[in-house]
Amino acid sequence: MNQVNIQICIKEIISSFLNKIKKVDHKNNEIYIHLRDIDDMPVICNHVYTSLNTKLATIICTDEQKNDNDFVIRYVFEKLNADIFIFIIASLKKSKYFPSIVSQIPAAASYEREIKDMFGLVPVGNPDLRPLVLHEHWPNDIFPLRKEFDLKTKVARQEQEYPFLRVDGDGICEISVGPVHAGIIEPGHFRFSVLGENIINLETRLFYAHKGIEKLAESMKLDEVLLLSERISGDESVANSTAYCQAIEKISQVYIPNKAKKTRTIFGELERVYNHIGTLGGISTDAGFAFGAARLNILKERMMQLNESLSGSRILFGVNRIGGVKYDISDKNKKLILEQIEEVSSDFEKIIVFLRSKSSFMDRLKGTGIIPKKIAHDLGIVGVAARCVGIDVDTRHDHPYANYTVHNSRTPQQIMQDQIEMEKRSGDALARFEVRVKEVHDSFKIVRESLDLDDDDGLFTEVPKEITPYSYALGYAESHRGQTLHWIMMGEKNSIFRYKIRTASFCNWKIIEHAVLNDIVPDFPLVNKSLDLSYSGNDL
């Protein structure tokens, strides 16, 4: 059925833009539309976005000058009603300018600014060309993701001021928070414009902890990059390493044993559970309800101890390997998993019932940090932040991977009921609380269903010693924050030529600037925690 959908998409695009298209091909669930001229990019992207029911998933820039392709930009669109990704591809042809698509697709704004910083290519028509990734102390003429940039280069510090947006008017004050915070968290700067206590504007400034992961990967072996992918954001180690491995596996056409698929699913859901429980505890803390936070943090600790018993790591480092997984879940560990999730599930339900009975707690969440549905759609928000406003996106269902095909067989009645429940969601902190509660229960169910590990086809398949240079594919997974995408283009001798990562946090950080509007300053920590955004996951 999916191949039929792919052919329908290809036919529709070709019939609309035949003279503007140089080549069309497809592989797996990816369609590649190669354009003759990058100036045609905006109209074709807008057509794919509006007429084919898609969302912008990511924008990928590559420096392919050594292959005589100059700089190449790939706009990746995700079809919302089929397991399809559409790549619109064009070369800049020796130019340093490319047309912006922001006026039609607002979600492109951050991607275009990122390309300007990292490659020195200018998106003409983007209204905000301020630095995004590279801060004001970075020189204006050095671009880290160009192939000419040596990883060992020591860059001289440059003195400049970042031009924050200013809101003027009688009684308006500005409050600066961070980038250094009073706690063991990473740096991020928040600049509030307030009238009294009411927030009328918020501007975020991130990337203080940029790690250069995409550049580092180009100098590392495939197994070393796997370790790097786990460290993008430590609490998403399974999701990110799954997406990375999947990209390599798709490129090399490696068969993944069924047992490995089920094991990935189990560890992916255990990762989701301990994080969701921890976030619910954080919400309780920021709502001023210490008892609820203490009880939930005990359950999070029990889940992390289970993780350590199964993998040797409390945050599940080392679970995945390219071609499968490293750990075999023995009969003894199956029993341990079932016992632990039964106890934690029971205690979790009691705590949630208790929290729901406290009107002061529920009132604190209700109506706080409301996300407008249209803005969430326009900005391409993913994960809980999208589902809390009734946008039904979940990579496990939309693009099944690992063993999730088993859990994708919802009946028409279940789909209808899910849609009805989705439409009732209001987009506030309480909705995000309830979505996480439901997902914890769902994760326990998926783990139980996946523990049938009697397949005898092994835990992994070896990857070929020589993968075709300059072949590429997209890997993906649904972390507890939402969809993470890992696109890889192979280089020569099994090296990585380009590694492009787009985490859920990169998509979702921008929504907090809208969620806090008309709230008061003391609401900010609660709104922030309810969105569960990652600094490290953003600051690649």
Element layout with pairings:
Layout: H1 2-17, E1 21-27, E2 30-35, H2 41-51, E3 54-64, E4 70-79, E5 85-91, E6 97-99, H3 109-119, E7 122-124, E8 172-177, E9 189-195, E10 198-205, H4 213-217, H5 222-230, H6 237-252, H7 258-286, H8 290-311, E11 320-321, E12 324-325, H9 331-356, H10 359-365, H11 373-378, H12 384-387, H13 395-398, H14 412-423, H15 429-450, E13 472-478, E14 483-490, E15 496-502, H16 504-508, H17 512-515, H18 524-531, H19 535-538
Helix pairs in contact: 5-6, 6-7, 7-8, 7-15, 7-18, 8-9, 9-15, 15-18
What does this entry look like structurally?
The protein is of the alpha+beta class. It folds into three domains: 2-124, NADH:ubiquinone oxidoreductase Nqo5 subunit (Beta Polymerase, domain 2), CATH 3.30.460; 172-205, no CATH class; 213-538, Cytochrome-c3 Hydrogenase, chain B, CATH 1.10.645.10. Helices cover 41% and strands 17% of the residues. It contains 19 helices and 15 strands. It has helices at 2-17, 41-51, 109-119, 213-217, 222-230, 237-252, 258-286, 290-311, 331-356, 359-365, 373-378, 384-387, 395-398, 412-423, 429-450, 504-508, 512-515, 524-531, 535-538, and strands at residues 21-27, 30-35, 54-64, 70-79, 85-91, 97-99, 122-124, 172-177, 189-195, 198-205, 320-321, 324-325, 472-478, 483-490, 496-502. The strands form five sheets. It has a five-stranded mixed sheet with strand order 1-2-5-4-3, covered by helices on one side. A hairpin with a 5-residue loop joins strand 3 (54-64) and strand 4. The longest helix is centred in the middle third of the chain and has 29 residues, at 258-286. The chain is globular, with a radius of gyration of 23 Å. The model has no long low-confidence stretch (mean pLDDT 92).
